[in-house]
Design goal:
alpha/beta; 6-stranded mixed β-sheet
Length: 174
């Protein structure tokens, strides 16, 4: 195989794993007495999460595993997306490390996924998602908006950092 053929093959080789990295939907600030981790979604967030689930379903992106931050806004986002994808809500795994996570925390959480998982959906927070997007993508991303979804292809869960940003979708994307 020539060098050109190798480059073409690697470019079009399907990723062995796909990570859907989701920033939680828009949260409410109406209840200042609530702790940050307890903040619920606002109306826009409750509207956007199912829409993004519908978009994933239209692309046949059905996760084998859904993992969420324990924050109410993240877990509700995960549940609403899972509902649209017809995934079991009881199967959502809560990972405390995804709350107030750094990009390294997210990478560490993903790196331990079982090899049988081919497509995983992870719901967490900014700034970790935007920072991780910029580590993976060669196109700068100023901000992953609420309920934004990064689709990342990777050969294995322990090398997401070297993965490829395949798609970037968000509720207000034209």
């Amino acid at each position: 195989m020539s060098r050109y053929d190798e480059e073409v093959w690697f470019r079009f080789m399907p990723a062995l794993r796909t990570l859907l990295l989701v920033r939680h939907a828009k949260s409410s600030w109406k209840h200042p007495e609530l702790e940050d981790i307890e903040r619920p979604l606002n109306k826009r967030g409750a509207r956007d999460a199912p829409v993004m689930g519908e978009r994933l379903l239209a692309r046949s992106l059905i996760p084998d595993l859904i993992v969420s931050s324990p924050a109410a806004r993240a877990l509700t986002t995960a549940q609403m997306i899972a509902g649209e994808l017809r995934c079991s809500l009881e199967a959502i795994v809560v990972d405390d490390a995804l709350y107030a996570a750094t990009p390294l925390d997210v990478l560490n959480a993903v790196s331990v996924f079982d090899d049988s998982v081919r497509l995983a959906l992870v719901v967490t927070h900014n700034p970790a998602i935007t920072e991780l997007a910029n580590r993976i993508s060669d196109a700068p991303i100023d901000n992953v908006p609420t309920c934004g979804i990064l689709t990342i292809g990777t050969p294995a869960w322990d090398c997401i950092d070297g993965g490829t940003l395949v798609d970037f979708d968000y509720p207000r994307k034209p």
